[in-house]
Amino acid sequence: MNNIRNIKDIYNRNARWYDFLVKPIEFFLLRKKRRKLVVPLSGKILEIGVGTGANLAYYRNDISFIGVDASPEMLKIAQRKAERHGISADFREMDAENLEFPDGYFDAVVSTLTLCTVPHPVQAVREMARVCKGGGRLLFLEHGKSCIGLVARLQEGKSGKHFQKHGCRLLSDPLNIIASAGLHIKISKRFFLGIFQQIEATASHTHI
């Protein structure tokens, strides 16, 4: 399994080309989902694995926003996007499994395409829950193993090389990860061949 240093190295190398490489899937599959996910949010918002800032075009500009990522090169690009979209944002290099914030600090915590990458995703979700207010919103837009047999088998054949190159687990199970962290799942929807999942959960803090 990749550790946080390996993940950092992979995404530092790929930062310059990342937006270009993911542009087709962002345009055709994810942009509307991202908008729906974050537009309603208000107050203090944390996004883990913020990357190059794909969600920044959709946040309201009156929120208090902090974005964290393991890759400083990705964060540089995110900072430029925030300035372009008129969002006052605080970007920090940080490990999602060890968030440097007090308990119950945020009104909502967002993770998009992040659980497939962090070395210990259950711990990352527990940290998301810890820093979110009791009853606050935890929002996920993630990908993983398809619920369609043929698609899942194709993913299985590519998973090893994909992980070595991109540090990304094609066979991740986001719903199980979130449930294993002790969160209450309110909404779970699959789309695009059962690969992607949009999930909303709440943090009760009874498990932390």
TrEMBL record:
Residues 46-140 form the Methyltransferase type domain. It comes from the Bacteria. It holds the Pfam family Methyltransf_11. InterPro entries: Methyltransf_11, SAM-dependent_MTases_sf, Thiol_S-MT. Transmembrane segments: none annotated. GO terms for molecular function: S-adenosylmethionine-dependent methyltransferase activity. This is Methyltransferase type 11 domain-containing protein. It comes from Candidatus Taylorbacteria bacterium RIFCSPLOWO2_01_FULL_48_100. The lineage of its organism: Bacteria, Candidatus Tayloriibacteriota.
